[in-house]
Amino acid sequence: MARAVTPRRKALVTVLAWTIGLALFFPILWTVILSFKTEGDAIASPLTVLTTPFTLESYHVVQDRSNYFLHFWNSVVISLGSTLFALVVAIPAAWAMAFVPGPKTKDLLMWMLSTKMMPAVGVLVPIYLLFRDLGLLDSRIGLVVVLMLMNLPIVVWMLYTYFREIPGEILEAARMDGATLKDELIHVLTPMAVPGIASTLLLNVILAWNEAFWTLQLTTSKAAPLTTFIAGYSSPEGLFYAKLSAASTLAIAPILILGWFSQKQLVRGLTFGAVK
Amino acid sequence: MGEIVLKGVTKRFGDVEVIPPIDLAIHDGEFVVFVGPSGCGKSTLLRLIAGLEDVSGGKIEIDGKDATETAPSDRGLAMVFQSYALYPHMSVKKNIAFPLKMAKLPPAEIEAKVQAAAKVLNLSAYLDRKPGQLSGGQRQRVAIGRAIVRSPEAFLFDEPLSNLDAALRVNMRLEISELHHTLKTTMIYVTHDQVEAMTMADKIVVLQAGRIEQVGSPLELYRTPRNRFVAGFIGSPKMNFIEGAEAAKHGAHAIGIRPEHIRISTTEGMWKGTVGVSEHLGSDTFLHVTTEHGLLNVRAGGEVDLHHGDSVFLSPDMAQLHRFDKEGGALK
Amino acid sequence: MSTQASRTAARLMISPAVILLLGWMIVPLAMTLWFSMQRYNLLMPGMGGFTGFDNYSYFLTDPAFFDAIKNTLVLVLGVLAITTVGGLLLALLLDQPFWGQGIVRVLVIAPFFVMPTVSALVWKNMFMNPVNGVFAHLAKSIGLQPYDFLAQSPLASIVLIVAWQWLPFATLILLTALQSLDSEQLEAAEMDGAGPISRFFYVMLPHLARAITVVILIQTIFLLSTFAEILVTTNGGPGTASTTLTYLVYVQSLLQFDVGSGAAGGIVAVVLANIVAIFLMRMIGKNLEN
Ligand SMILES: Nc1ncnc2c1ncn2[C@@H]1O[C@H](COP(=O)(O)OP(=O)(O)O)[C@@H](O)[C@H]1O
Ligand SMILES: [Mg+2]
Question: Can you give the residue ranges of the ABC transporter domain (chain B) (predicted)?
Fold first, then answer.
């Protein structure tokens, strides 16, 4: 890429790329803008909306009505909990597949991925009934378990691809140095794989945060994460754009901020470790 | 103590027998070099000794005790890997301290041993750096440091110098030899480079396709190679081989003569030839001479005045002639 | 790198993951299979009993079933087509040098972070609403009749919403893959006289094959279970115009409380997904080998 690009071409690409970028981002931007308007202003035509004053009114209404912080906290516990739990199970498994591969390793990995293909509806009925009978409906622990199982194959897969980049000789050196398997995993492998583990963690937290099948089916109120909280705004009720926008902004802001701050790891993670 | 005895050790990967049954005794304090062409099973043999691979048959004894089933960390051996295998997330100090930490030594003792090792290896100034910030030679020293702090029964080196440039390789070769003289610990050193083998070893083990071709001191191998493979592998430049009628004259299927054992003259000699490419190294000159018996490599003095196309005569030093039978075995 | 001890350790280390996933697959699936052969309606307790394949014939002959299959295919293939083609074009664009690359990349990725319930609600109300939506305002401002997206083309509208969410993913993967293309390869092709079009088809596209495979595999996994977008926009309607297989099973089991027939639908979904999975795994297995 050492060749000079003509300024005209660069300008053209710049205009085109920015136009598309802004267009794709516009729904989010628009939601944020509407969240700071009154209900009356929010339904005006787009150009008029921009001239109206800002207000925090809708945020107050949303918090009073549905206790945002409870749901925010539920989302944090569920997404982080399920991911950490999955990592604890997946790190040893990925270690085994990456460093002690056998003739069946590839098949095992493919099988794990294929469980991810099982449609959730296929097990909706029994899981729902099981949860009902075990009193796990609308409980955080229940969702942590289900989402952990949902994401486990992806976590194993991603860790496996990252671990494979680590030379096996280093782990052998640790073994020669007297490290037990536990030492090898905790003092050598995990610290070396920190970037990969961080990417895996981030991506799966986001997937769990945005998961909207099981969270909607299995929670109603006290354990409801933000996905369920926002679904409460799905039936139209008079003028509600500003409230809906405020609630939406509150639901996506944490992940957007997290995503932007950790862009590098996330971009790595987003490719599921499968593309370099 | 660091006596290692292999008794009928074999290794198969699936159906492929990489190491046919091997018997070998390595004495305490010896510097043993496994040498052979790439892919001949040197690393595999070393890893069997280390315990990083299971033997498919046979027994490994360390200091008289059967260690065949012993875990790598309990064999009392330290290994330096070709890629150094340093822990990239730990400082030099932590790298060297790692085996001691695993052995649960008290921190004060660890500190003392690390400092001592760093001093021996000229690493004291770099203790807080990460491996990524070191040169190849320094990384190599850290890897050695990590091995020596444990005061192992024996050191295992797997082509430790192959990632270094030529000049550094010569230096490190000397440092490792020096280390051996200081520590007097058994060292097993794997290389495909016969120069390293000749310069460092007390005892050389020449391997081909997993088989031991010959075991002996560097000069033994040089003087009395047991077969054509060893004769050709040890010594640089390689021994010249001549087959056919000329060999039959000496009652052999093939005869071998090293470049340094051929006299060259412009007036008289046994074989007539024409000079081809000549390599002037200053101290020596290597001449490629085309004769009726094929291309022969000849070492001459540093200042010979011979050029491409000149006619010359070659005479082998009969006392240094090696004779081989049809199977490649040396004839007495 | 393997001794008997390390292989034993490996088996031990891998077993929790395997056992958990096996349990997660087998226990509920066996239960679904069992329920699917029972008469089991949550509204009519005590009416249970074995019915054999009645639930299946009921589910499979329901006209809604064929609509659901068709809609699922349209949804998955539609979104895949939009995101791979769009993602490829966008990746080619973003791979060019221009001012503000970092910011534009952030803008493009953003939709991926938006949870499905939010994006569906935002599109439904603030954009596609025929009275107050942005599109309606735009249409009116140029003198056109506003279009009621979700009522008149419900499935296409949902495809659009889902494609918006997944376009960033496809773009990002393809962009990453493009950037890993050795520029010397392109230069060599140029020296060999290949124009931009041939360079794209003969050098870039083969290089992207693996990335495209990944895009298709991962998106298919997620798209087959699209649920929230339908729930909060159309509820599968009007009629069954936007009911997918996933949504149909949900309606049967949890809205109509017919557990038996819902379970039968679940098994049908699993069987169909497995057919897709086998097909995809074949393709992936080949492409991911190296
Ligand atoms: N894990 C393994 N599985 C199968 N074959 C192997 C394995 N490790 C080594 N080999 C084979 O064993 C032979 C010897 O390898 P190696 O010991 O690494 O040779 P060297 O170190 O002498 O170059 C080679 O042919 C290699 O392909
Ligand atoms: Mg080797």
Answer: 4-234
Give chain A's mean pLDDT: 86
3-state class (DSSP) for residue C267: helix
What is the per-residue pLDDT across A152-201, written as a single tens digit (0 to 9) for each?
A: 998 998 899 889 889 999 999 999 998 988 999 999 999 999 988 988 89
CA atoms within 13 A on the CB side of B230: 29
Q: What beta strand segments (E) does chain B contain?
A: 4-13, 16-26, 31-35, 57-62, 65-66, 77-80, 154-158, 186-191, 203-208, 211-216, 240-243, 254-257, 262-265, 271-280, 284-291, 294-301, 311-316, 322-324, 330-331
A188: tokens are 């050598």
Cβ atoms of A203 and A162 closer than 8 Å: no
Q: How far apart are alpha carbons B160 and B47 in whole angstroms?
A: 14
Considering the domain architecture, whether residues A84 and A13 belong to the same structural domain is answered as no
Between A and C, how many residue pairs show a Cβ–Cβ distance under 8 A?
A: 313
A253 domain residue, yes or no: no
CA distance A78 to A256: 18
Asked if A179's CB is within 8 angstroms of B87's CB, the reply is no
Whether a cis peptide bond, with omega within 30° of 0, leads into B237 is yes
Provide the 8-state DSSP code for A185. Answer: I
- Could you tell me whether strands B77-80 and B154-158 are parallel, antiparallel, or unpaired per DSSP bridges? parallel
Using CA atoms, how far apart are residues B87 and A147, in angstroms rounded to an integer? 34
Q: Taking Cα atoms as reference points, which of A113, A115, A128 lies closest to residue A214?
A: A128
Token reading at B35: 């040498």
For the residues B174-199, what does the mean pLDDT come to? 94
Cα separations in angstroms, B215 against B4, B26, B188: 15, 11, 13
Domains and CATH numbers, chain C: 53-289 (1.10.3720.10)
Decide: C107 and A15 in contact? Cβ < 8 Å. Answer: no
User: Which CATH number is A168's domain given?
Assistant: 1.10.3720.10
**Average per-residue pLDDT in chain B?**
92
Indicate if A84 and A27 belong to the same structural domain.
no
Nearest CA in chain A to B145: A177
DSSP A206-235: HHHHH--SHHHHH-SSTT--HHHHHHTT-S
Q: Which residues contact C105 (CB under 8 A, 6 or more apart)?
A: A21, A263, C94
Q: With H, G, I as helix, E, B as strand and everything else as coil, classify residue B84.
A: coil
Tell me how many residue pairs between chain A and chain B have CB atoms under 8 A apart. Answer: 60
Task: Give the atom of ligand 1 at the shortest distance from the alpha carbon of B37.
Answer: 22
ipTM over 0.90: no
- Tell which residue, C166, C162, C164, has the closest CA to residue C233: C162
Q: Give Cα separations from B90 to B126, B139, B142 (angstroms).
A: 12, 13, 12
Beta strands in C83-202 (DSSP E): none
Q: What are phi and psi of C14, to 5 degrees?
A: -90, -20
Ligand 1 lining (C-beta closer than 6 Å):
B 13, 18, 38-44
Q: Which of B9, B44, B162, B207 is the pocket-test mutation for ligand 1 (most atoms within 8 Å of CB)?
A: B44
Q: Indicate the SS3 state at residue B33.
A: strand
* CATH code assigned at B287: 2.40.50.140
Task: Give dist(CA C287, CA C289) in Å, integer.
Answer: 6
Helix or strand run (H / E) with residue B74: none
Please give the order of strands across the beta sheet that includes B203-208: B77-80, B154-158, B186-191, B31-35, B203-208, B211-216
Average pLDDT over residues C67-71: 91
pLDDT, tens digit, for every residue of C97-122?
A: 889 888 998 899 899 999 998 999 99
Mark yes or no for CB contact B71/C2 under 8 Å. Answer: no
Asked whether residue B251 falls in the same domain as residue B176, the answer is no
pLDDT of residue A230: 86
